[in-house]
Amino acid sequence: MYQFGHVESYAIKPSKGHGIEGIWKEAERVDGYCGHVENPQPPVQVYGCSPREAANRAANWAGQAKDAKGRKLRCDAPCLLAGVLSYPRAGDDWDSFKEASVRWLKGKYGDNLVSVIEHQDEAHPHLHFYAVPAPGQTFDDIHQGRAAAATAKRAGERVCIQRAAHGKAMKVWQDELYQGVSRELGLMRLGPKRLRIPNRREWLSHQTTMREMLNEERRFRDELLERESKLQGKEQEHSTRERSLAGREAALDTRSAKIAADIRGLNDLKGEIDDKFSKLSTQVELERERALAERGRLGVLEAELNEREAKLNEREAEIEAKTPASIKEQNIAFKGLIHAIVARLPEAQLQKLGQTMNRDHRQHLMIVMTSQGRDYNR
Q: How far does Cα 371 stand from its chain's mean position?
């Protein structure tokens, strides 16, 4: 099984052959335009618009396009690119072929690709695709064979060289189709005639060899993909670990910065404490000096008091010695009387009594009342 891909360009009113109207009617199985099909069936829309709409878009583009000299485009100038991609009826990967073909066509023609349909009513299932230039583009922009020929013409090459450039460019188109679609599905790039294989046996052997090579390449590619997946997994794991380490490092940096800030705060606090301690030490030293001075003063005062007390004791002794015995007895009797009176009279009467006494007797009355828990208000 080998690939079949073909592309053509069509005009509104060609000088010979089919125009865009015949193309879209053949694609949509309009009566009178599909006599080569024994049992015509409506096409299956695969992508974009219908072939009729594609032809209308091509006609609209041709109506506003200009040729290289700026003149209105001729009615026999190409405006619609149409192609066929066929798959062997004996194959079992039609859906994969269709999906891969549409993907390749989108990549090849981009927004210029406007329609893809499917036909199942002929010998082999196939796709028809249609591309239209955008405003501001030329037809050569979407047809690489015509673009190559035009380049050769502008370079002044002969017509045979221009045709060779066209053929070479379209061979590249076939190679791109093979690499993008056919190869992965086991289709040969060229058929037995082009390869000059003389008989069917050698052709089948060639296909078997190519499929084995393709399967070996697929296994090798799968191994590479598996290894790449493992490497990506390890890379992701390493990336995760690196992010984790970076996070931990950032956390450590944050913690280190906080500790440094705390240390600076503690140093500042220590400085404040040292200042306060220094001031307090100075104040304590001053208080100590004042206390020592006060102690010295109190010592001097205590010495004076002791001296006065000694003198008072001496005087009291002298007075005691000079006091007659009768007076001493009277004093003792008076003190006993005071005790008896305090025990019997209320505080109010005691206070009135104290007002009639001299200072020494009143002092003694107050001492006795205090000793017995009584209160004397002056």
A: 92
Decide: 148 and 165 in contact? Cβ < 8 Å.
yes
Q: What angle do CA 17, 22, 26 make, to 5 degrees?
A: 120
Q: 66-125, pLDDT tens digit by residue?
A: 988 889 999 999 999 999 999 988 777 889 999 999 999 999 999 999 999 999 999 899
Strands 44-48 and 78-86: unpaired
Q: How far apart are CA 127 and CA 84, in angstroms?
A: 6
pLDDT per residue as tens digits for the range 266-279? 888 888 888 888 88
**DSSP string of 240-283, one letter each residue:** HHHHHHHHHHHHHHHHHHHHHHHHHHHHHHHHHHHHHHHHHHHH
CA distance 265 to 338: 74
Structure tokens at 150: 């035009």
Report pTM.
0.57
User: H-type helices in the chain, by residue range?
Assistant: 20-27, 51-64, 94-109, 144-154, 159-177, 192-195, 200-322, 325-344, 347-355, 359-371
What residue type is assigned to position 258 of the chain?
K
